[in-house]
Amino acid sequence: MSRTHHHGFELPKLPSLLRHALPRFVEGVIAPVAVFYAAFALLGLNGALVAAVTWVYGGIAWRYLRGHQVSAMLVLAALGVTVRAALAAATHSPVVYFLQPTLGTLLVSMAFLASVPLRRPLAQKLATDMVPMPEAFLRHARVRQFFLRISLLWSLVFFANALFSLWMLFNQSIGTYLWVRTSVVALLGACAVGISLFGFRRCLQHVNREPALAA
Questions:
Q1: Which ranges does the record mark as transmembrane (predicted)?
Q2: Which of 43, 59, 83, 214 has the smallest count of CB within 10 Å of its CB?
């Protein structure tokens, strides 16, 4: 008697992934920068801080009114923005507002890096949060090796992001920082996503070509 263990997995189509990710990217990256900068240009620092906080809590209220789930992560993010805005208002410095998330990015880079020697790649955890994958597939040696390498890649991306952001923050105007930094970070992220998807597809091709194991 034989048992078949198939570790194959099919990645959702790219348009489907983009439809899922693009609105979140616009909402979480592009829109906050546009709101803050527009308010900063028209109303000054305090007006920009109020606009940033209003944007975040408005997003939470919009989800709640539409019957969508408000995640604990989103609530924590809103509290973080509130604290950042309060500190920036108290010090009258927009640098303080942007310094905290930049340091947070540096910590994320360290977390990705630390997950590699621990053999618990953070890239795998994030990928399975977005696209559920079977355990048999995730246990495959080639898949585990892929996620370890991608965790290293994202550690480098976040580290470069943090260093560039810090340099921009202390050497350029806030307007230049907002748009140039956002553009560079988006480009770095897009390249890393492209490399990740390309590598994952190649990994899938190798794994799915292997015959199912029989016992």
A1: 34-58, 70-89, 95-116, 146-170, 176-200
A2: 214
- The answer on pLDDT for 107 being more than 80 is yes
Q: Alpha-carbon distance 96 to 99, whole Å?
A: 5
57 class by beta-carbon count within 10 Å (0-12 exposed, 13-18 middle, 19+ buried): middle
d(CA 44, CA 174): 12
Domain end, chosen from 92, 107, 134, is at 92
Is the CB of residue 188 less than 8 Å from the CB of residue 158? no
Residue 5 lies in a domain: no
Of the candidates 10, 5, 6, 7, the residue with the CA atom closest to the CA atom of residue 201: 10
pLDDT at 82 over 90: no
Q: Range of 80's domain?
A: 14-92
Alpha-carbon gap, residue 202 to 113, rounded angstroms: 23
> What tens digit of pLDDT does each residue of 122-145 get?
888 877 766 777 788 888 888 899
- Clarify whether residues 134 and 36 are in a common domain: no
Asked if 39 contacts 15 with a C-beta cutoff of 8 angstroms, the reply is no
